[in-house]
Each structure stands twice: as structure tokens, then as C-alpha cells.
Amino acid sequence: MKRKKICVVGAGWAGLAAAIGATQGGHQVTVLEASRTLGGRARALAAGVTHPLPDGSVGALDNGQHILIGAYRETLKLMRLVGVEPEDTLLRLPLTLLQPDGSGLRLPDWPQPWNLLAGVLGAKGWSWGDKQSLMTAIRRWQRSHFQCSAAASVADICVGIRPLVMDTFISPLCVSALNTPVQDASGQVFLTVLGDTLKAVVPRIAADSAQNTNGIKHWAGSDILLPKTDLSALFPDAAARWLEAHGTQIRLGARAPAPRWQAGHWYAGDEEFDAIVWATSPAHAVQALSEYAPQAPKNLGIYLERWLRPAQKLQFASIATVYAHAEGLVLPYAMLALPSSPQAPAQFVFDRGQLGGPTGLMAFVVSAATGDAETTQALVLAQAQRELEPWLQGRPLASVQTVVEKRATVACTPRQVRPPQRIAPGLLACGDYLYAPYPSTLEGAVRSGLMAALALDEADGFSWKD
Length: 466
Hints:
By secondary structure, the protein is an alpha+beta fold. The chain has helices at 13-24, 73-81, 86-89, 114-121, 128-143, 154-157, 163-178, 187-199, 231-234, 236-245, 282-292, 298-312, 373-387, 389-392, 442-454, and strands spanning 5-9, 28-33, 51-52, 58-59, 68-69, 90-93, 96-98, 104-106, 201-205, 216-220, 224-227, 249-252, 260-262, 265-268, 271-273, 275-278, 316-325, 335-337, 348-351, 361-369, 398-410, 422-424, 427-429.
């Protein structure tokens, strides 16, 4: 196989995965990243920077609270490859969607599928009819092999599920996974995620090998995995160390101009490459390719316009994370679901003190956020004061920082057409917005990056007249 000179533009999780895959494939890889921090949208706010809290302590904040699940096979595999042990850096919780009053679903730590059956039967606050409506729907989805009409929304495929179950299980699960409300979210993508979640079993190293003679336990695909370190340390920083140890160049603060083809090679600025993997956000990819398309050779321009058409039609959804602190506040679980409404927009709260951070630091997540940062923060703090009063006991929650990622994910709607990974021969794209079976997730980003690396061999044998 010919060793190629490859440029990866963007060092988010997708770009780093593409660089690792290309390096493993024997290629000479250069990574260009415009910012000074690796990880894209899933990173620490600033590398090595801590933020002061109201009680005088400090804590590291992320550019939004993220969760992983046990079904993220490729992400967990890549973390291990670069020297990050998921067992040490992620807190595993069997799927838990409990409300502050203790109602809701919490699966026991049992093998699948018995964990789901026991969890539904034991769900607090649900009537027998509520539980039966969910199990009937799950059996229907299983019989259809987790397939539905491309035009169906999550609300459409959930007909027959009772309102309480929709409000306390389906809606929070949908908005956390797809970042889109049930009435607008793609039923097929939801079923794909749900099918992987219910079917996946992921081997892991036992924390208590004395109780497990072969040293291996399993993570269920439905397990929630919460980072116990900042997001940069969870994967991007270790990936960069692995890449540099294997001869890959990583240039931070290096904003790549629009890609350009000339005389049989692709160029990023004045530097020549055999192929380029464009791993930026979709907005930056559209901007760069739109800038170059009018100047490109005619046949190449056709490729670019064909890719740009669906890319320019993508719609986006925002996510807000409100960090707040109350001295001594400890929740019963590291993650709680919250009753949400337009005036109480947060769907989840995470106790960062149980995730390696300072005690009392909370992260409230508003998926599919619609308000500005100031309004969202005020509504969330009022909501939190009400919902967490049993543990606050009159103590006030003080705001620390609010992060609003306006284009956090692609809105995951029915019949959505995503751009292809191959922009043109020798020019590939990767990112969470491209991996069509999945919503915009870390797993989608990683899989897209690895697929781009595998597709590099398709770059051979192309030429255009200038």
C-alpha cells in the first residue's frame, strides 16, 4: 500500500479518530487545529484552567456536560488504544432516569434483558398500565427489528405509551440522545440508538476481580458512563500524545484555508498533500468549500456543489450547560432527571462533586435550548432551587458559568438527508453530523473519523484539468 501524505483539518473527536486511523494505516499525517485546545465541542473550556467557585475553591469546567453509554464500542476501544482506561475515568451507572422525588426508571445491575424487565416492573410512581404500555411498545419495536418509516417521529412510534412514561422516560431519553423534542425527532434514529442500547454488551475489566475469577465483567449497552475527569483529559489529550509518539504532527492555532486542488495534489495553504480529511464543524466545512467551489476546475466544482447542497440545508440545535454551586450540596445520585417545561428548561442535573470535581458544583443541562444565556441561567437557577430543595435546605445556588453551544448538534429530524463522507476524490469529510445511523454523538464522531481513515485508499487515480 502506498504511504500517503494526509492532512486532517480539525482536532475534535472525529478528526483525532481519523488521524489515529490514518496513522495506523501507515500514512504520514498532519493535523491542523485552529484553536489552542483539542477536542472540538467536547473539551475542557480551556486547557489546564480552573474556575473560581463562590466558596473560594476552584474547579475545571467543560464546554458542556457530556455523557457516554455502554454501547459506544468504538469510542471506548479508541480510549483504550491511546492509554485511557474507561474503568478508571468513567463512572458507570445502570440506566437511571430518576426524578428528584425518587420516581422514574432505574435499571438494576443485572445482565440484559433482565435488567430492563426488572427496571420497568420496579419503576416508582408508574402504574401497572404505565409499565405495560412501555413493554408493549418495546416488544413491537423488537418485532420490527427497530425499524420504522423514515417519515415517522418519535411521537409517532410511541403511540400507546402512556403520558407519564412519555414525560419521565421517553422524552428525557429522546432529548438527551437526539437533542430534539419527541414531536420533531426522527423515530428511526431513536430506534437505532435504542436497539444498540438494548442489545449491546461490552466487555470490561472488573474493578473487583476477586469476585470474578476471569477478571472480566460486562458493561450493558444501556449503561450510562459519566466522565470523572475533564473532557480534554478523557480522550483528546491522550490521543494527541499517542499521535505524536507515532510520528504525527499536530499544529495548534493553525487555521487551515479552504482546500485547493492543483496538479494532482490537494493543498492546505501552500502545503501539498495526497488527501485531505476535513473534520471541522459543518458550518466551517460549508464556509470553506463554498469559498473554493467557484474557483475549482469544472468537474471538481460539480463534486463540491453536490456535497454542499445537503450540507447547507442542515438544521442545528443548541445545548446550554449551567454550572452552579451550593456549599456542601450532595445529590443522592451523580445524575438526576428533572421535570422540565419552557419555564423550567433543564432536563438533567449532574453532581460534579461525585465525578471528581469540587463538592457542591452542579451542571444543569438544557438540550434543544432556545433562550439566550442570561434568560436560560435565570430560569434554570429558579428551577433548581425548587427541585433540589430537599438537599439544599434553604441554601442558595450561585451561578458559576453558563455555556451555550448554539450549533451543538444537527437537529435529528425525520427524512433528514446528510452529506456523504466523500466530498470528492482525495477530499473527505468526517464529523458527528455525517454518521447517518446515529444522532450527533461522540460515538458518531469517532465512527465517522475511523471510516474516513479507511476511505483514504479511494483517493488514488484521479485527475482534473485546471
